[in-house]
């Protein structure tokens, strides 16, 4: 019996488990591997196989000739792309909008989560959370319509109130600088409630005894937030920041199109908008694919760089 126990213990030792091959684990956990196959097949079919279409960024693509029948153009498509004034303008606007969006839309959920975490009334807290989450479920078409009903210079509700109070109507969406500010404010309103979910979940895992010990030591609310809450959710903040940096060269096509108009064209030309104009409207698929590929490569570089910086600062990173 002792020999059997010893043999069983030996079979489950870490050293022996390391010697087992993939076939051993496949036979033992085949049900789990079978479950993984479906999402893995989905990712391969709908995420990786379409990447073969990136080849048209290096070709003079003609629809009639197809992917492989079109002539190779090498890097000529990229050279033409980088020489376009619209490309420089799109990169500038994309960086400007997304960096400003990162500053405000990324930080506001943290502030909001800290405020909600301090509310003691559970019912009031849940009502606030529900009200703040709702804008996330609205499409940008609906949000754009609401924005023009509220902020338009001619008959917007906000401008009507300003005029009733003796003020002058403000072109919130009909002047470039005002449009940029309105764009950021609307984006913060739409996303801040949803962004608090992860931070509130992270805060719920903080040991309450830490707050009780801080109270005994005479710490106030601000001191508890600074010394307990923020350090406890630092890893979550860093992880989400790395993921957000990967979208600095991205952008919301729907958001731009829902809020743009003919009076404001200074900041509305971004990379996703150019992809739509060149790819769908003009039919220049090679150029649209090239700018999309450029955008993706820069995004990957930013994510890897941010991940390495985070690891050097002592965080886990995401890669």
Automatic annotation (TrEMBL):
<feature type="transmembrane region" description="Helical">
    <location>
        <begin position="285"/>
        <end position="304"/>
    </location>
</feature>
<feature type="transmembrane region" description="Helical">
    <location>
        <begin position="225"/>
        <end position="245"/>
    </location>
</feature>
<keyword id="KW-0472">Membrane</keyword>
<keyword id="KW-1133">Transmembrane helix</keyword>
<feature type="transmembrane region" description="Helical">
    <location>
        <begin position="131"/>
        <end position="151"/>
    </location>
</feature>
<protein>
    <submittedName>
        <fullName>Aldouronate transport system permease protein</fullName>
    </submittedName>
</protein>
<keyword id="KW-0813">Transport</keyword>
<feature type="transmembrane region" description="Helical">
    <location>
        <begin position="95"/>
        <end position="119"/>
    </location>
</feature>
<comment type="similarity">
    <text>Belongs to the binding-protein-dependent transport system permease family.</text>
</comment>
<feature type="domain" description="ABC transmembrane type-1">
    <location>
        <begin position="91"/>
        <end position="306"/>
    </location>
</feature>
<feature type="transmembrane region" description="Helical">
    <location>
        <begin position="180"/>
        <end position="204"/>
    </location>
</feature>
<keyword id="KW-1003">Cell membrane</keyword>
<dbReference type="InterPro" id="IPR000515">
    <property type="entry name" value="MetI-like"/>
</dbReference>
<dbReference type="InterPro" id="IPR050809">
    <property type="entry name" value="UgpAE/MalFG_permease"/>
</dbReference>
<dbReference type="Pfam" id="PF00528">
    <property type="entry name" value="BPD_transp_1"/>
</dbReference>
<feature type="transmembrane region" description="Helical">
    <location>
        <begin position="32"/>
        <end position="58"/>
    </location>
</feature>
<dbReference type="InterPro" id="IPR035906">
    <property type="entry name" value="MetI-like_sf"/>
</dbReference>
<keyword id="KW-0812">Transmembrane</keyword>
């Amino acid at each position: 019996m002792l020999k059997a126990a010893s043999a069983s213990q030996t079979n489950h030792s870490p050293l022996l488990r390391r010697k087992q091959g993939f076939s051993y684990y496949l036979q033992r956990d085949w049900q789990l591997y079978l479950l993984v196959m479906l999402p893995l097949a989905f990712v391969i079919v709908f995420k990786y196989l379409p990447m073969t279409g990136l080849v048209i960024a290096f070709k003079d693509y003609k629809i009639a000739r197809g992917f492989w029948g079109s002539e190779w153009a090498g890097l000529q498509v990229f050279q033409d792309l980088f020489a376009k004034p619209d490309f420089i303008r799109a990169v500038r606007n994309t960086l400007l909008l997304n960096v400003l969006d990162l500053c405000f839309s990324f930080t506001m959920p943290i502030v909001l989560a800290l405020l909600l975490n301090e509310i003691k009334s559970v019912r009031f807290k849940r009502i606030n959370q529900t009200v703040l989450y709702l804008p996330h479920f609205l499409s940008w078409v609906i949000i754009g319509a609401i924005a023009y009903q509220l902020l338009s210079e001619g008959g917007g509700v906000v401008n009507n109130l300003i005029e009733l109070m003796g003020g002058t109507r403000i072109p919130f969406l009909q002047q470039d600088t005002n449009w940029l500010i309105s764009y950021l404010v609307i984006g913060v309103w739409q996303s801040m409630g949803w962004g608090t979910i992860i931070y509130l979940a992270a805060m719920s895992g903080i040991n309450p005894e830490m707050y009780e010990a801080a109270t005994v030591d005479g710490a106030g609310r601000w001191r508890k937030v600074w010394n307990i809450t923020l350090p406890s959710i630092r890893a979550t903040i860093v992880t989400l920041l790395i993921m957000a940096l990967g979208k600095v060269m991205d952008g919301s096509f729907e958001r731009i199109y829902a809020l743009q108009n003919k009076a404001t064209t200074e900041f509305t030309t971004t990379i996703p908008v150019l992809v739509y104009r060149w790819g769908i409207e003009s039919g220049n698929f090679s150029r649209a694919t090239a700018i999309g590929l450029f955008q993706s490569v820069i995004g990957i570089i930013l994510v890897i760089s941010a991940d390495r910086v985070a690891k050097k600062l002592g965080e886990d990173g995401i890669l």
